[in-house]
Design goal:
This protein is of the alpha+beta class. Helices cover about 35% and strands about 15% of the residues. It has helices spanning about 5-20, 25-40, 60-100, 120, 130-135, 250-255, 265-270, 280-285, and strands at about 45-50, 50-55, 105-110, 115, 165, 165-170, 195, 205, 230-235, 240-245.
Length: about 290
């Protein structure tokens, strides 16, 4: 048996009040306030013999407010799932690094050309050994054998209907995850960027080679969400970090080179020294703003 009607009302109102007190986008906060007001003023309780009947007149405005709240809740749930998936991938990368003293990189053919994504290398560490065994590791991602496997993208890499992933490698020639490179960077691994979670249109087929090769504006064809104060990155030691949008330009440039030998204050970048600073053009190009 469910809660008594008056308890159900009390529970609903308590939930709405808690929702209202949370830090919410302006539109969502307004919807919560409007819905709370409608519930408290429009609910009717009527005794019918042994039952208590609750009724609430729902206007089109209230329906719209409920839609805003539901949309926001779904969005937040999707973000939680995406973060959990990213955490799993980062753990797999960290394990790969520990086992191989190297980063997972795109697979190459005999001519040194990338043919399969580094994500394929991670499959055994993500409980996907069976899928990994079906790949022909010496054939391109779109070969007769490998092409059908594109549609079987593990959900940990995303839920895009086109089987695209937004977790990209820093794969330029001087970067940590460049194809053909072997071994960990000579720069401290904990301060060298290896992977980044992008947004919008900047993605790639999950099993195809690729990555971010340069940072010219015309090469970054996506739109970042300026509401996010940070972007998720994975360093060459396999650790997941939130990189502030206001990280200093000099620090970002140092983190993008694998063997540059630049000095870097990790506490300023990832620790208590990280502070809100005006956005710099370089990171905004990465984030697509």
């Amino acid at each position: 048996m469910g809660p008594k009607p008056h308890r159900a009302v009390d529970t609903a109102l308590t939930a709405l009040a808690a929702f209202q007190s949370a830090s919410l986008p302006e539109e969502v906060g307004a919807a919560v306030s409007g819905l709370l007001n409608a519930v408290t003023q429009g609910i009717q309780i009527e005794a019918q013999e042994e039952d208590v009947v609750l009724s609430l007149t729902v206007s089109n405005e209230v329906r719209g407010q409920m839609g805003v709240m539901i949309g926001y809740a779904v969005e937040q749930q999707e973000k939680l799932v995406a973060q959990a998936n990213l955490t799993r991938v980062a753990a797999a990368i960290e394990t790969y690094v520990a086992q191989n003293n190297d980063l997972p990189r795109d697979l190459l053919n005999d001519a040194g050309e990338p043919i399969l994504s580094w994500r394929v290398r991670l499959l055994p560490l993500l409980d996907q050994q069976a899928l990994y065994d079906e790949f022909a590791l010496d054939e391109p991602w779109d070969s007769e054998t490998n092409q059908p496997l594109v549609a079987r993208m593990p959900s940990v890499f995303g839920d895009d209907s086109d089987h695209h992933s937004h977790l990209l490698a820093f794969a330029g020639e001087s970067m940590a995850a460049a194809p053909g490179r072997t071994g960990l960077p000579s720069d401290p691994a904990e301060g060298t960027l290896a992977f980044i979670q992008t947004y919008g249109d900047q993605s790639e087929t999950w099993s195809a080679p690729g990555g971010l090769l340069e940072f010219e504006a015309d090469a970054l064809k996506r739109t970042g969400d300026s509401a996010f104060p940070s972007v998720n990155v994975i360093t060459a030691d396999g650790k997941l970090h939130a990189l502030s949008r206001w990280t200093r330009l000099k620090s970002i440039e140092a983190m993008l080179t694998a063997d540059g030998g630049e000095e870097l204050d990790l506490d300023e970048v990832f620790g208590t020294g990280a502070s809100e600073r005006p956005s710099n053009r370089f990171l905004n190009r990465i984030l697509g703003n």
